[in-house]
Amino acid sequence: MSKMTGAVRKALSVILMVTVGSSYCLITSTAFAQVSPKLVGQLSVRGQVALNGINTVSGATVFGGSQIKTGVNSSAIISLGKMGQVDLEPESELILRVDAGIIGGHLRSGRAVISAPAGIAVNLATADGIAVSDGKQPSVLTVDVTSGNTRVASVRSEAKVLVGNQAEIVAAGQEVSVGAQAQKGETCYCYDKNQKVTGKGKINDKGVCECTESVSGTVMVGSGLTTGALLTLVIVGVGGAIAGIVTSIQGDSQSGGGTFVLSAFR
User: Fold this and answer.
1) Is 190 left (phi over 0), alpha (psi -120 to 50) or beta?
2) What single DSSP character describes residue 36?
3) Spatial distance between the Cα atoms of 26 and 75, rounded to a whole number of angstroms
4) What is the pLDDT of residues 56-89, one digit of tens each?
5) Is 143 within 8 Å of 131 (Cβ atoms)?
6) 3-state helix, strand, coil in the chain (%, to 5)
C-alpha cells in the first residue's frame, strides 16, 4: 500500500510539473506577443534626430510606437514601404503608430507631412484634434502645430479634422485651423501645386483660408477667373487669350492641376 502511494505521488508530481511548465510557456509566449513591437519602416535623417531618446542615423529601423524627434535645422523621413511615408521637419516630435491600413500616432510638436496611397487611411492626433483621411484616394496631409494651434492642409484629397464631436472638412487644396489660437481674420496665403505663393487672404469663422488678393501680379484662378480679373486681362492687352486661359483652367480644375488654396505655415 505504501509503495502504491509513493508511485501515485510521483505520478502526480510529474503531472503537476508538466502542467506548470506548459502554463508558464503559454503565458510567456502570450506576453511576448503583446509587447513585441512591430517593424513598420526605415529612417532617413538629416542633422540630429533621436529615435526613442537616442541619437540615430539613416538606415535605422522604426517600430510601431516609436518616438522620433528632430533637432534644430534637422529633419527625418520615415519610409513605410507600400504604405507611404512621413516627413518630419525641424523641431518636431512624433509618436508613430502604424496598423493595418492606417498611418497614425500623436504629433506633439513641429510639422509632419504624411503621404499615403489609396487604400491607406491617416489618423494623426494633436493636442487640438485628429487629422483624418479615409484612404479612398491617395492623400498628402500636412499637420502643423508650430503656431500653438493645429493647422491641417490637404493637397490631393478631402480630409477632416475631428474636434470633440465636430468635424471640420478640409477640401483638397485648403487648410483648416483648429485650437484656442485659430483666429478669424488671421492672414493666410495661397499656393499653387508647386507651393509657389500666388495670393493671400484671411481665415474665416470656420478656420478656413479664403484667398482674395493676388500677389506679385498673379491672377487668382482657384475657382475660375472673376469678372475683375478678366477685365484686367483685357486692359493689359491679352484679351484674345482669355478663352484659351479659361479652357485651360477648367481642364486643370478637372484634372486636379489648378491652384490650391492653402494658408501659410509659420
Assistant:
1) beta
2) P
3) 43
4) 999 999 999 999 999 999 999 999 999 999 999 9
5) yes
6) 25, 40, 35
Q: Across the chain, where does the E strand assignment appear?
A: 39-46, 49-51, 54-55, 61-63, 67-70, 75-79, 85-88, 93-99, 102-109, 111-116, 121-125, 130-133, 139-144, 150-154, 159-163, 166-170, 174-178, 187-191, 197-203, 209-214
Report the candidate in 111, 87, 82, 107 with the shortest Cα–Cα distance to residue 97: 107
For residue 8, how many other CB atoms are within 10 A of its CB?
10
Place of cell 497614425: 104
CA distance linking residue 70 with residue 78, whole number of Å: 12
C-alpha cell at 26: 503559454
Q: Are 47 and 74 in contact (CB under 8 A)?
A: yes
Tell me the per-residue pLDDT of 160-201, one tens digit each, with 9 for 90 and over. Answer: 999 888 888 999 888 898 886 556 676 766 655 444 566 777
d(CA 133, CA 25): 42
Per the listing, cell 503583446 goes with 34
Rg of the chain taking only CA atoms, in angstroms: 27
With left for phi above 0 and alpha for psi between -120 and 50, is residue 167 left, alpha or beta? beta
Residue with cell 478656420: 207
User: What is the per-residue burial (b if ≥16 Cβ within 10 Å, else e) of 137-157?
Assistant: ebbbbbbbbbeebbbbbbbbb
User: Pairing between strand 102-109 and 121-125?
Assistant: parallel
